Amino acid sequence: MEDVIILGTGCAGLTAAIYTGRAQLNPLVLEGTQPGGQLTTTSEVENFPGFPEGIDGFMMMDNLRKQAARFGARYEHARIDKVEIEGETKKLYAGDKVFEAKTVIVATGARPRLLGIPGEQEMYGGKGVTTCATCDGAFYRDMEVVVVGGGDSACEEALFLTRFCSKVTLIHRRDELRASQIMADRATSHEKIEMAWNSVPVEVLADDKGLAKGVRVKDVNSGEEREIPCKGVFIAIGHIPNTDFVEGVLELDGDGYIVPEAGSQVKTKYEGFYAAGDCVDHVYRQAITAAGMGCQAAIEAERWLAENG
């Protein structure tokens, strides 16, 4: 039986692995379907402390992985589909295989909700299609971009992008935003933001280098199509937390995010069972905040093991 099992190899999971490894707990880290998490699809990370020139997302995650391995972290590929965590021994099921541990840290992250239109996947991650203005907005300085969505997140993305971009077109399928009134007012009144009402994207258009050059949108009322030129397509229609395997076991909110115990960011109602990163946090969703939560979860697990053996 393991002292610690960590689910996920994004910033939260690997930071937890570094801390539990340094505590000589010999953590077992289970990789899911996307080793390294969302950052592996990001061409350059400029806002993680300690990298004044920025760092390639894949390289950053590979560095974290090697750092954790240096302190004794072990890796195995498995996708957990069921858990039993009420007793002293936590059981994690991956098909017919069962893993047992005294403590578990869930850091399975979240995946962005995408549009599912032609061109989107081909240009996702460094070629013009992205899901994080905070991460990638500065790369589009003095360029025209579009944001797809109509909620608070879409408005926040659009407003943030006005710091860098010459023009931001906010594409929404209705004739009014579903964001809070204050956010909607800020977005619609901003001189750099243009609204594309009653419109849905149907294709991301590429130039001869395979980079985004525009979006084809369709008017939901008339059916007419037109092209909006842009260099960046920011999709802000929400995220899907990777928490299906704990549904019915842990408390989840209406969007599927794990709800921590009151007074803690990482504790759950089960002793020795913790959650960290984007499977919990639907507000910040940054590499640095995920890493911080992974640190917290690791320290909590270490303390729990010290007190309970």
Automatic annotation (TrEMBL):
Pfam families: Pyr_redox_2 (PF07992). Its cofactor is FAD. The keyword Aminoacyl-tRNA synthetase does not apply. GO terms for biological process: removal of superoxide radicals. It catalyses: [thioredoxin]-dithiol + NADP(+) = [thioredoxin]-disulfide + NADPH + H(+). Its EC number is 1.8.1.9. InterPro entries: FAD/NAD-bd_sf (IPR036188), FAD/NAD-binding_dom (IPR023753), Ferredoxin-NADP_redctase_2 (IPR050097), Pyr_nucl-diS_OxRdtase_2_AS (IPR008255), Thioredox_Rdtase (IPR005982). Residues 3-294 form the FAD/NAD(P)-binding domain. PANTHER family: THIOREDOXIN REDUCTASE 1-RELATED-RELATED (PTHR48105). Belongs to the class-II pyridine nucleotide-disulfide oxidoreductase family. This is Thioredoxin reductase. The gene is trxB.
